[in-house]
Structures are given as structure tokens and as C-alpha cells.
Specification:
alpha/beta, D-Maltodextrin-Binding Protein, domain 2, 2 domains, 18 helices
Length: 445
């Protein structure tokens, strides 16, 4: 019996890993991940460096004359006169790339930036920053008679930084970065979702293919339905694990190689500005700040030393258990119907909890210890995603073990359910079986 099961596992594994689609996706995904990380920065960095911007400043208030700082890529000239005429001449003759008009309309300062062609994405923020600094400096000097440099020193002395420190039950302390916890948890949850959907669907299609081609009739004459079901599920699971391990190795290797080949890629002022712009809204996160500086492996080292083993083992467990649960249910579904289109009425109730757990990911990540997050991480159809979203923020050991235990018990039920349905449904053709018919099979089997 075991030899036949191993033969089916070997057949499922070898036929799938030799497919061109498997090889292409296995190689392509790590490349795409690296490209998504580095290409946007490289493109923005190249555009910032290659584009020289000439700015004509028309300052009606005369507060900001000769105050804007020029760079290698941005130069400023100052003129006065009618703004409409100056703008038309400057842009029509392409003498300047944009015209920056500063005026006081009686309600306060106002400024407009006129341009025809594209301008650097950070030009507007740079102008705003310099104007705010100059205007603030003027207020300090006129009202308080304090220089800006002196004020900045006072500001640095009075600046308060809050570091979140988490204390475990043993009294050990570690810095806790909520933004990074949320980011890692959401990434793990979405990754498990896509892996489960992709490989569980392969089980469904495999069962339907063998059933529609009548291959299963030949196989059933040589092996038991349970052997065939086990071999198919385990074989595809090994394919998924193989692909996952290759993805981890290739992605790490590519990122590490790029970091070694271009160690100063993110260290320049331009690239730091680009990275900062790309992480706007999370600038207060220390780990994300390190990521903006290009220290990818510094982020990993800062975050993982304490919980890396727990996170990795838990991810592997929920990856495998989630796949096995949904694969058995999908296999049972495939045995009941004759085509993939007919399977929708059965797969939708099964897949709905998985979709709901994805919908609630933002809620879980923002409140990982709430009642909703707790219960979703205990329900076996939603726990593979929900628990992984919670885990980086810290989960009590008893909750983690309880969730794992419930998943294992539910997997036993799923195997029993799938075996009963698969044994009867795999040899039935041309008949649409409803839920009542399926429950009758369970009672009679």
C-alpha cells in the first residue's frame, strides 16, 4: 500500500516540476521581487540625476529673493514683472522649465508653480520646504530675535523620541516596531493566501483532469481511492514546498548580490531622498528608515534575532496545514463534479473563509490582540492567514499551540470527509450531485 502511495506521490511531483510553467514561475518570481524593490528606485534616481531643471522665480513679496539653494540638477533665476508675460516668454521659448510665482493676496502668502513639460516629483516639496524654512527664520528674527540655527539647537535639545519596548513573561525586553510588525504580518498572510489558492486549485484541476479523461478508472483498478487522494495531495504539497524553498534561496541570493555589487546604490543623497519619498507615511519607523537607507539586511537583523525561529516555523506550519486542509476539500469537490465550471457552487463556500480572512487583514494587523483577531486565528479555515498576521506583534504561546491543535484536528476531519466523498464521487459521471446527495454518501460510507 505504501509503495503504491509513494509511486503516486513521485508521479505527481516529477510531472509537475518538469513542466515549463513550473520552471518559469520558480525563476521569474524572485526576479520580479528584486525588480519591484530596486527598479522603481533606480528609475526615479536616474530621472532625478539626468533631468536638469531651470526654475524662474517671480517673487512679488521680495521675501525669498536669492534664498533658494541651487543643486547640480536645479538652478534658479529671479525676475520681476507681469507674471502672465514672464510665464509665457519663459515657457514658450523653453528658457526655463517652470515658473515659480510667490505673491501675497492679503490673506497670506500664496505660491503657484507653472510648467508645460514634466518636472521632478520632489521639486514642489523642495520649494515648500525651503519657503517654510525661510519664512520661519524671518519670523524668529523679527519677533523673537533668534537665529534659525540657534532655534534648531533648542529644538534638538527638546525633541522627545519614544521607543516602544515590549516585555515578555520572562522579563526580557526588546524594541518593538509596530509598522514593521504590521508589514511583515500582512506580507506573510497574503503570501500564504496566494500559495493556498494556487496549489489547492492544482489539486482540484488534477482530479477533474483525471476524471474527465477517464484516467481515474484505470488508476482505481490498481490503487485504492484513499491512496490516490493521499498521493495527489502530498505530491503537490512537495511541489509547493520545493518551489517555496527555491524562491527563498533565489530571492535572498539576488538581493544579497545586488547589495554587494552596488553597496552605494542607496547611500547617495539623491537616492536617500527617493527612498524617503517612497516610504512617506512611515518615516518614523526605525526599521523602515533603515530600509530607506538601503540597509535591507540591517532591517532583517534588527527584527528577527529573537523571534525568527518561531516566525519561520509557524509560517511553515500554517503554509503546510492550510494547504492540506484546502487541498483535501478541493479534492473532494473535484470528485463530485465533471467540470471546473460546475465546481464553483462547492468551492465558493470553502474559499469564502479564506477570502474573509484577507478582507480582515487590515483590521487584524491594526489590533492583533482584539477579539476578532483572536477568534479568526482559532477557526481552522481562517487561522493560516489570521495567525500569521498576528504573530509578528506577539502572540501568547497557549493561543499559538491551541490554534495549531485545532488545525490538526480539523485536518483529520477534512481527510475523513474527503476520503468518504472521493471514494464515491470519483467514479460518478453525468450527474449533478447536491449537498443532500453528498451527506447521504457520508452516512452510507
Amino acid at each position: 500500500m505504501q509503495n503504491k502511495t509513494f509511486l503516486i506521490i513521485s508521479r505527481e511531483y516529477t510531472t509537475r516540476v518538469k513542466k515549463k510553467s513550473f520552471i518559469i514561475m520558480t525563476i521569474l518570481l524572485p526576479v520580479l521581487i528584486a525588480a519591484l524593490i530596486f527598479v522603481p528606485v533606480l528609475v526615479m534616481l536616474h530621472s532625478e540625476r539626468s533631468q536638469h531643471t531651470r526654475v524662474l522665480v517671480v517673487d512679488d513679496t521680495e521675501i525669498f529673493l536669492n534664498t533658494f539653494q541651487e543643486t547640480d540638477n536645479t538652478t534658479y533665476q529671479y525676475r520681476s514683472g507681469n507674471i502672465d508675460q514672464l510665464t509665457k516668454e519663459a515657457l514658450d521659448n523653453e528658457e526655463f522649465d517652470c515658473v515659480f510665482h510667490i505673491l501675497d493676496n492679503g490673506e497670506g502668502l500664496r505660491s503657484n508653480l507653472y510648467y508645460k513639460k514634466s518636472i521632478p516629483s520632489n521639486l514642489q516639496s523642495s520649494l515648500e520646504s525651503q519657503m517654510n524654512e525661510t519664512f520661519f527664520d524671518r519670523i524668529l528674527q523679527d519677533s523673537l530675535h533668534i537665529e534659525l540655527a540657534e532655534f534648531q539647537k533648542l529644538q534638538d535639545l527638546t525633541k522627545v523620541n519614544i521607543t516602544a519596548i515590549q516585555i515578555d513573561k520572562d522579563g526580557n525586553q526588546r524594541e518593538n516596531d509596530a509598522d514593521m510588525n504590521m508589514l511583515i504580518g500582512m506580507a506573510c498572510g497574503f503570501f500564504i493566501y496566494f500559495i493556498i489558492i494556487i496549489f489547492a486549485s492544482q489539486v482540484l484541476r488534477g482530479v477533474l483532469e483525471e476524471k474527465s479523461n477517464r484516467i481515474v478508472e484505470v488508476l482505481i483498478s490498481s490503487v485504492k481511492p484513499m491512496q490516490l487522494l493521499t498521493g495527489k495531495i502530498v505530491g503537490i504539497a512537495l511541489v509547493g514546498i520545493t518551489q517555496f524553498l527555491i524562491w527563498v534561496v533565489l530571492t535572498t541570493g539576488i538581493l544579497f548580490s545586488i547589495q554587494l555589487a552596488a553597496p552605494n546604490l542607496f547611500s547617495s543623497d539623491d537616492s536617500a531622498a527617493v527612498a524617503t519619498e517612497m516610504t512617506t507615511g512611515m518615516a518614523d519607523s526605525p526599521d523602515l528608515a533603515a530600509l530607506a537607507d538601503g540597509n535591507i539586511f540591517q532591517v532583517i537583523n534588527n527584527y528577527f534575532p529573537v523571534s525568527f525561529a518561531e516566525l519561520l516555523l509557524s509560517f511553515f506550519f500554517y503554509f503546510v496545514i492550510g494547504y492540506l486542509i484546502y487541498a483535501t476539500l478541493y479534492a473532494a469537490t473535484g470528485s463530485v463534479v465533471d467540470s471546473e465550471s460546475d465546481s464553483q457552487q462547492y468551492t465558493m463556500p470553502v474559499t469564502l473563509p479564506l477570502i474573509l480572512s484577507i478582507i480582515f487583514v487590515p483590521t487584524i494587523s491594526s489590533n492583533p490582540n482584539g477579539q476578532l483577531a483572536l477568534w479568526l486565528s482559532m477557526i481552522p479555515l481562517t487561522s493560516p492567514i489570521s495567525m500569521m498576521v498576528r504573530l509578528p506583534s506577539g502572540v501568547p504561546l497557549w493561543q499559538l499551540l491551541t490554534s495549531m491543535g485545532i488545525c490538526l484536528l480539523f485536518l483529520v476531519f477534512c481527510i475523513w470527509f474527503a476520503a468518504k466523498v472521493y471514494r464515491v464521487g470519483i467514479l460518478m459521471y453525468g450527474k449533478k450531485n447536491g449537498w443532500k446527495e453528498i451527506f447521504r454518501w457520508l452516512r452510507e460510507a
